[in-house]
Amino acid sequence: MKRVALVIAAVAALVAGCAGAEDAAGSEEASTTATSAYEPGPFFGECGSITDAEVQSAFGAGPFGQITRNSVGCQWETVGFGGPGVSFSWYRGSPIGRERAGSELIGRPAKDIEIDGNPGFEAERGTLCEIGVQFGDDFFHWSITYSDQPAARPPCDVGNELAQLTVERKQ
């Protein structure tokens, strides 16, 4: 793992060094173009505009022992870190393809989905499911895991239900 990180860092440094060879006008034009090309998606609200009670109802695996909210998402856990839980993340200006590729790299093959005309992916393996839905250059991501517990509901049914609600409530 450390070797992969070192190789990635070395390639990034090399690419950054090559980019420094551009003239100042070209660099300014490129950054202006990149900035103006960003296509923001809608506002999803805290936790994807989903209440704790709605997450609990969809998940159906007992009461949550811990609920975490921060500027990038929310996490609901039944028995602490690594146990059954649900998480929501909202990524602004980040490529959904990277999240999809990460799922596939760790053994969760992704398939294409669409929710209300918005493209996305679903990746499932065992009692874990990830749902990502794209809006412009932004996307949100639901992750549902029953860990080593029997699933109260199929995890992708839970993920799709929560993703559908998030899409319906976008602003």
Q: What layout of secondary structure does this protein have?
A:
Layout: H1 2-19, H2 24-36, H3 52-59, E1 66-70, E2 73-77, E3 85-91, H4 96-105, E4 110-115, E5 118-125, E6 128-135, E7 138-145, H5 155-168
Antiparallel strand pairs: 1-2, 2-3, 3-7, 4-5, 5-6, 6-7
Helix pairs in contact: 3-5
Give a description of the structure:
The protein is 37% helix and 27% strand. It has helices at 2-19, 24-36, 52-59, 96-105, 155-168, and strands spanning 66-70, 73-77, 85-91, 110-115, 118-125, 128-135, 138-145. A seven-stranded antiparallel β-sheet has the order 1-2-3-7-6-5-4, with helices on both faces. A hairpin with a 2-residue loop joins β1 (66-70) and β2. α3 (52-59) runs antiparallel to α5. The N and C termini lie far apart (40 Å).
List keywords for this structure.
disordered N terminus, globular, 171 residues, alpha+beta, single chain
Secondary-structure element string? HHHEEEHEEEEH
- Any idea what the shape is? globular
* Overall residue-averaged pLDDT value: 83
Distance between the termini: 40 Å
The oligomeric state of the chains shown is single chain
Q: Give the DSSP E fraction (strand runs of 2 or more residues).
A: 25-35%
The level of helicity is 25-40%
Topology, number of strands: 7
Can you list the strand order of the major beta sheet?
A: 1-2-3-7-6-5-4
Low-confidence stretches: 1-33
Alpha-beta content class: alpha+beta
Q: Please, how many helices?
A: 5
Radius of gyration using CA atoms only? 19 Å
Q: What can be said about the biggest beta sheet?
A: 7 strands, antiparallel
